[in-house]
Amino acid sequence: MTDLKSILLPGIDPAAPLIIAGPCSAETREQVMDTARGLCDMGVKVFRAGIWKPRTKPGCFEGVGEEGLQWLGMVKAETGMYTATEVANRHHVEAAVGAGVDLLWIGARTTANPFAVQEIADTLAEVGDPSMPLLVKNPVNQDIELWIGALQRLYNAGFHRLGAIHRGFTAQGTHLYRNMPDWHIPIELHLRYPQLPIICDPSHIGGRRELVQSISQQALDMGFNGLMIESHVSPEEAWSDSRQQITPGELGRMMESLIVRGTSGPGDGLELLRRQIDEIDRELLEILSRRMQVSHEIGRYKREHRIPVVQSDRFNDVLRSRVAAGEEMGLNPGFLKTVLLAIHEESVGRQIDIQEDGAR
Ligand code: PEP
Ligand code: MN
Description:
Number of strands: 10
Bound molecules: phosphoenolpyruvate, manganese (II) ion
Strand order of the largest sheet: 1-2-3-4-5-6-9-10
Mean pLDDT: 92
Helix content: 40-55%
Order of helices and strands: EHEHEHEHHEHEEEHEHHEHHHH
Distance between the termini: 68 Å
Structural class: alpha/beta
Shape: elongated
Radius of gyration: 24 Å
């Protein structure tokens, strides 16, 4: 679909991962300029800032709008960094292209809407320069065809310098991540389009600044071609996504400590399968930890209501129903019993500790 180096702009090292960094949103001229200066000092070459923000509910900060495009122009003039912003409709494309923004991306909510993507593609064909690099975030839902479809709409409009951004998928319930990475989907995209550069957005996957480094490392280990990271001069005061932004200084330190093994795209064969296992094991651990937390709550309830810890009828029901459900999924009943008994034993042990604590 496109060439691996196609999204790289002149002056960017093709051997290193492409780092795109900047605030979730442009807020004020000072915030944009201070963040840009900090990032430029850290060696960042492409500056991102959201000008129009797609918010889940009305009434939130929806971006500064066109005024912010002038600030991007100032960033470019003062620091020499390339600039990037998100576009979601005709007006955004016209304004961003008119203001000389170097790189545009389509956000996750927009990728999920083919009408919007087509409108963007049509507008780009009218007002854009086909050499402009364009990045497409994965749609919010796990639909690889929708992701590819958006890239194809841009390709068909004459824009061939394309790349994909993996920013995770909407997660239900409480998870470690804000948006579940489901790495097998970008890996599948890579297997289908080996030339298409794929960038990881650890900020929107993790949703918390503490996770940005480890997710970035995971992405680099899989051979992703770059990272898009949210960075703000004072993250705690950010008007959007404050929990996941890091300061330019933190970003600089992170870039120094990340280990780059190569940016040839997510690896192949055994390596890819092992990455999937790593990811699944991480989810398993998270689920086990959540289960133990609920079991702990049950232990406290039992203590308060003087209910004995072990309820054999309940456990037999649990065992029977889980073994039956697992068998339907192709799991061996003997193996399932061993696993469930081990989990149960740990839960009971913890609940007994709670009872004893209460008795002391
Ligand atoms: C963003 O990059 O700030 C953004 C809105 O991201 P996403 O489209 O991934 O939600
Ligand atoms: Mn954001």
